[in-house]
Amino acid sequence: MSRTDYLFTSESVSEGHPDKVCDQISDTMIDLILSREPEARVAVETAATTNKVVLMGEVKTSPEKSVRDEEFIEAARSTIKDIGYMQKGFHFNTCSIDCYIHEQSADIAQGVDAADNKDEGAGDQGIMFGYATNETPELMPAPIQYSHRILHLMAEARHSGAAPELGPDSKSQVTVEYRDGKPVRAHTIVVSTQHAEGLESPDVRKIVEPYVLKAMPEGFVDADTVWHVNPTGRFVIGGPDGDAGLTGRKIIVDTYGGAAPHGGGAFSGKDPTKVDRSAAYAARYVAKNVVAAGLMDKCCIQLSYAIGVPEPLSIHIEDYGTANADVAKVEQAIRDSISLTPRGIRTHLGLTRPIYRRTAAYGHFGREPDAEGGFSWEKTDLANALKSAL
Fold first, then answer.
1. Where do the DSSP E strands lie in 104-239?
2. Which of 9, 62, 203, 336 could form a disulfide with 199 if both were Cys (CB 3.0 to 4.6 A apart)?
3. What pLDDT band is residue 264 in, cutting at 50, 70 and 90?
């Protein structure tokens, strides 16, 4: 029997964390290319260190819609500026940016492209997971949702000028106490944030505490909650100047904070033909709709693919003993309600638009769908169809 009373911890990192800087730059490249050619193939990695950024990867576009190296470099520089890096060791205007983006391998393309009566295949083999739980309004695990919200509020305050003492680089961690399987209070809160010269930990806590409290449900933080704010005592040098960054190193932050499995593939820097990204979004979409339909309180969906093969090899649901319907019938209802081929996913969720930069900080899931088509996988418009199918 699973435990119902326990502590669970998840962490988040801000848009200025060196790995997240790289994720955002990589997804900026995706948006730049898709804005010209929605069906383009792109895979871009970014590495960053003190005043140095390197772009690496491959693209497949029409010659007349191709992007020049100078445009990639300028887009990367603009992203660094938007994040807010203007420090001596990492400045948007003076950091060196090298571009090594080249044409996609023909061997990969021939296995993935549609041809004759063959539908477009998956861009790679792999397993992808989607998860949802009714413990928060966003149907996300509480620890990761609150960890994201703390840093998002701090970033908004920094950008607006309400908290100019804060720097771009920060991390949060929330330990939640569960009773009878439900989140009831914040046991421990950890915030480490880059800050202006001259501040000490008590000063930083005074600045960040209002945003922490705003991020949590009322009464969730109590007199017994343990706080650790900048426990090292000093965090002035941050971002790629303080630690090197690389695309794809924060996959647990990107998903469910460790509350559910992750297939292993990163999201950022990949166009939506790559099932590492699109099928993980589809799995979240389906899991969220299963929970929204009341069919389960928790739902974890695994999809598997083979390179060049359109249909998923398998669909598996873990209901954690919370199902209110026959799980095998739910799996069949999913197959009947949505095409989970790469093209079917892209069409259903509208994934060929330039919507990816916004996903690369503060989580790919648990966000509000926007008017431009971003976070379409967070909609619950499939719930009625799933209920009807059952």
1. 126-133, 166-179, 182-195, 226-229
2. 203
3. confident
